[in-house]
Amino acid sequence: MQLQRTIKSFIHLGDQSGYIAECLEISVVTQGETLDEVVKNLQEAIALHLEGEDLAEFGLVDDPSVLVTFELQPSYAEA
Fold first, then answer.
1. pLDDT in tens for each of the 79 residues of the chain?
2. Which end of the chain offers a freer environment for a tag, N or C, measured as fewer CB atoms within 10 Å?
3. Domain assignments of the chain as residue spans, ordered by start
């Protein structure tokens, strides 16, 4: 089995407000009011989730990077 070098995550608008970040390979979900806050929270949540774990059990290399995809709503100029 080849180990993954990246943890893929997806950030989208929350139902009420702010943003929600979800990882695809590991069970991590977090939120924040701003994009900066949700990215910081995502980094912390991933670190806590993987702390003391054997990353190979998750299919990951020892020092994986995080790939973030944002879903943005288009903003249209009003006439």
1. 799 999 999 999 998 889 999 999 899 999 999 999 999 999 999 999 999 999 999 999 999 999 999 977 777 766 6
2. C
3. 4-70
